[in-house]
Amino acid sequence: MRLQILASALALSGSAAAFSDSWPLVMFSTSKFSDAPSNNHIQTRSQALEQVQDLLTSCPTDNYVLIAHEGVNAADLRRPNSMSNLHRAIGRKEIQGKFIVPEVVGESIDPPAIQDYIRRACYEQAKKVKPHFTVIKASTNEQDVIKQWEESEQWLNDSYTVLFVGTPSTKAKTAASKSEKTIYEPEFIEPLHMDLKRDVSGNAEKPGNATRDTRGLFEKYQFFTPGIFMGIIAAIVLFSLLGVGLRALASLEVSYGAFEKDMGPAAQKKQQ
User: Fold this and answer.
1) Cα–Cα distance between 51 and 221 in angstroms, integer?
2) Taking all residues of the chain, what is their mean pLDDT, rounded to a whole number?
3) Cβ contact 90:62 at 8 Å
4) Alpha-carbon gap, residue 77 to 213, rounded angstroms
5) In this predicted model, which residue has the larger pLDDT, 1 or 227?
6) Which residue did the predictor score with more confidence, 8 or 100?
7) CA distance 60 to 127
8) What are the Cα distances from residue 179, in Å, to 131, 173, 176, 203, 221?
């Protein structure tokens, strides 16, 4: 029955394989937790840490033990023959409060930060406590693991709270770091530029063979082209015709009286 207590809680997370970067969080205490924690079996690091701090705010017990086991995930805790010390500790009859998150996604919690939080929370409750922290390496054999658990169990008497956390495996951390460093770099084929350039290599003169042109300005450049010359002649002819016309108009001698209407008696008789 003791081994089934933790296994039944972890089985609720499903039979699927655990996330590669997830780790379990198991918290149990001789004091009953005042607020019922969330029963989400997959939580982020910030969500799980917030609930742990809420449960520790009231400083429910006199002794605190923090155990971090490297490379442990939810699948390891579901195995019947694995983590027997944890199963036995959580199955004690004096345990009143339990908080289990089978899979916490993200980096593991910072034990020194949790220890400082417990000290400050208990100090506000006029209690002076000294949390005990134990790290179980992933390469530790079974006998050493049992020995470390036995050393931690000396604090499990009367009033105590145990916080057990796992850490993502080294392979998962390496894979995550590689995936973060992998950046997609698109490859584009540069267009082939075929610019037509004038070949002036044959006409280029070498600086050593350059000679000074001493010809005159009118010999070197042609100012009056045939088109300009023909345009000037046509303009002279047109201006001469315009001058003849203006002189003909000016030579006309017509008096202003020719344009006046005769209103005398003779003209009136003709109109009648």
Assistant:
1) 96
2) 75
3) no
4) 100
5) 227
6) 100
7) 10
8) 37, 10, 5, 60, 73
